[in-house]
Amino acid sequence: MKSESPASSTKRLVTKLLFAVVGMFAFGFALVPLYDVICDITGLNGKTSGRYEMAAETEPVPVSDREITVQFLAQNSAGMDWAFGPNEAQVTVRPGEVKVVSYKARNPNDFVMTGQAIPSVAPNEAAQYLKKLECFCFAEQELQPGEEVDMAIRFFVDENIPEKITKLTLSYSLHDITDYEVAVEGIAAR
Amino acid sequence: MLPKAKLWLGLVVAALTLFSTNLQAAWELNMTQGVTQISRDTYDLHMQILWWCVAIGVVVFGVMLWSIINHRKSKGAVSATFHESTKVEIIWTVIPFVILILMAIPATRVLTEAYDSSESEIDIQVTGYQWRWEYKYLRQDANEEEVSFYSIMSTSREEISNDLPKQEHYLLDVDNPLVIPINKKVRFLVTANDVIHAWWVPAFAVKKDAIPGFINEAWTIVEEPGIYRGQCAELCGLDHGFMPIVVHAVEQEEYDAWYAEKQEQARVTREMANNVVTMSEALENGEQIYARNCVACHQAAGTGLPPAFPALAGSDVVNGDLRANIDLLINGVPGTAMAAYGRQLNPIELAAVITFIRNSFGNTTGDLVQPADVNTILQEAQ
Amino acid sequence: MSAAHDDHHHGPAKGFTRWLYTTNHKDIGSMYLWFSFAMFLLGGTFAMVIRAELFQPGLQLVDPNFFNQMTTMHGLIMVFGAVMPAFVGLANWMIPMMIGAPDMALPRMNNWSFWILPFAFAMLSATLFMEAGAPNFGWTFYAPLSTTYAPETVTFFIFAVHIMGASSIMGSINIIATILNMRAPGMTLMKMPLFVWTWLITAYLLIAVMPVLAGVVTMMLFDIHFGTSFFNAAGGGDPVLFQHVFWFFGHPEVYIMILPAFGIVSAIIPTFARKRLFGYDSMVYATASIAFLSFIVWAHHMFTVGMPIAGELFFMYATMLIAVPTGVKVFNWVATMFRGSMTFETPMLFAIAFVVLFTMGGFTGLMLAITPADFQYHDTYFVVAHFHYVLVPGAVFSIMAATYYWLPKWTGHMYDETLGKLHFWLSFIGVNILFFPQHFLGLAGMPRRIPDYALQFADFNWISSIGGFLFGASQLILLVVVIKCVKGGKKATAQVWEGAQGLEWTVDSPAPYHTFATPPDPKLIHAQ
Q: Which is nearest to C513 in space by CA: C3, C7, C12?
């Protein structure tokens, strides 16, 4: 520092600090994927992972006699007026046993709407043990006016689920993601 | 000196009188001990930390006060020259650290206890809306009649605007309280429909954020029957201060009877939707429903709060096509604050409130809407 | 002293352009201070509206929506408009004089970082007059209340925050460059006054977290206008993510508002105790420890959000740890007073009140760190009492102490001691009547941010409002004292205070327009 003029050392320092500023701005955005990774690992907020890809071709089989109750909940988010709910209130499964359950959804409006279901599991720590092989939440659901559908979930509960968890709750919140720029005439017609 | 003393005495007396006239409830100074094991443990923990803080404060401020009194220049104090001591620094780093460990041990114990959500007997889905709570009791079987209802503040707008005297449980009363049995583990699955809310009942030491799209869980075992009150604890917009929580904790038999009655009610409401009401019944009922559900945005005189909340007085929708009006109420207006009331009110209530708004605030359509009409539209939609 | 009379420097230009084009650290410091005082009065006015509405149960003066705008604007204006610019103003005035530098390292950027501020706050305040109303989602602006459900003016809010952030970042770069590159020969790092040290660390904190704040409001902007779903569950986002990112900024921000206060108090107490600061080295290390810890405790603001127990425990323990370095600081201040030779002029009174009341805020902070207890405290008036204790008799008192302490150096006149003491005592009594009962309100179960409350909260709200009006009115005394002192008064000596140590006291009072154009005599530089 002594060998260079104050002005040039200031310039170098400011450049470094500006890099730090840009770096921290980027870090703010990096927190987004980082958060998802942390959620995936810890089940933070009850987020479940995406489709479970099986290692072998064989289906998982029951590996224990423990019985776990899985409850199903449904909830519409604001502005979503579809009739939406589970066809079964709850099922009992053994770890490793594959179950299929379904939810019913109906678009009561006279225009095409698109919905997206978002799963959430309580207790949060159970989220990582609920493995979905198939789920309507993996895709957007487009329903014609008055159309009613049954939407399936195929899942199993991982054998490593902690002993103390005997009941877990799978909740879907249904969101309206219709592109209203297109559907706006339908609304105006109301 | 004497007149001055008298003046002070007078002021104190005046202040005390003011307090006592103002004294509508006890001077609540401390956290409630509550009616659950967790709430009592939390209280004990709170007191323990508080006393630690008081003790540390007495020592530190005591030394300071002593110095302030004795080591002042006006008393001829001459300043010492010492200004560092590694030994002393280490001592006052280590001692607080040890105290913190002593605090952390009970804190960890209570937290672990609060996180033990195993094996509940009753599960209730609690959903926050702007600005009401919905309670839905989870069933074993999808064919059972479902008990689910909205819980809305029942304090009248006139009490809030100071036009009527305030009742004892001002702002803390609801139309439909949550009912739970005592001595049973009740699990709450907390979520929200729109923005973040927080479900808080101090007597249970339960506070959980209700987050749209995600569920959180909390639980309680209430030990004493009683009525317990709480409030939304997360800023959720306009009426954040007006979405109280009331929980009735009752004996098991009473709970069972209440639950059966609620199931019966749900069944009857479905069937009763075919009854015929008169104009005056509809208006009376409609006014109450309006006061509870609509007043926050559309205002008591139907003037609304434009632009976000349109006026109903003279509104094109309210004075226009009846069917369109009913559809709007049932389905809401996506992308605005107007909620879909088709899933929040039953057909009787929907019919009544439509009748009310179409015949109030200077609106004179003369339409009398029957529950059956609304039910037909609802059925069509289903 | 000879440095001040360097002949090739000229005095300030005349008229408004002096202030518009100035690159002089003293001018810019003064502008920052006046600006922050104006914002303090504006934010204070909002607080008066809040306390007036809460004076009695029922809605009397404002509707709930306007009430929410008031709480939001009060928080934003006080944090970003009053406290932070006041510290930057003090840094501008004092840091060059304390380290023997002729000016800040980047004087033109300094001018910029001040002059964009009024635009930011004009833009933010203008929303009050717009049809959609001002931001009403709380100063913490949690999504989705601040995105999907926000009034249209949220976009103005976002840009205002961007500008404030840019101003803070430029200010911080300038301060770091000044401290690291402009110190007079002989001014080693461990001889720097603690105010300089605490500001150096604060500036690094600002550079680390202001960009994150800019990031989070940018994400909001994208969610609102460009259809992204950072915080919207429907598109795979998560409202809780907002809180994590916000508090990653927000917790260090809290220390940004208190570390410079530590520096100020560490200057004032030794002066009036006529005794060297006890444990200088440990003060520096404690400040650095607090700054480090501030990055790993953010989720203690979110204990009720539903984290796994391991997360709750980690954030609880980390938060409790902050008590250790903070305790060291308090103990050092008390040890500095111990066996001193104390006098109690206004700056000292404010500094002592700071130590006591800030420590009380620290105690409640420790209580709030205890997760299970926080389930009961969270989002109640207990929290309101806590953070106002650390910010008002904490940060704000330190700024007032600093003002009284250095006012004679800035103006060349002694301030009116009687009025100063009156200001102190009214503020001290007012602030305690205002905030102490709020602890009780919170414990009894009153949620924060509500425009109306249940009847059992009536008494303490009434008392709190009286305290609020007293405290609010008392601040006008400060304005009178400062104006009187600028206009005239007893001539101040260079030393000003009998026990004052440091380079700023070696130049004349008022400090000449240009100081230390030639570096000070190294013999004048003593260990603190």
A: C12
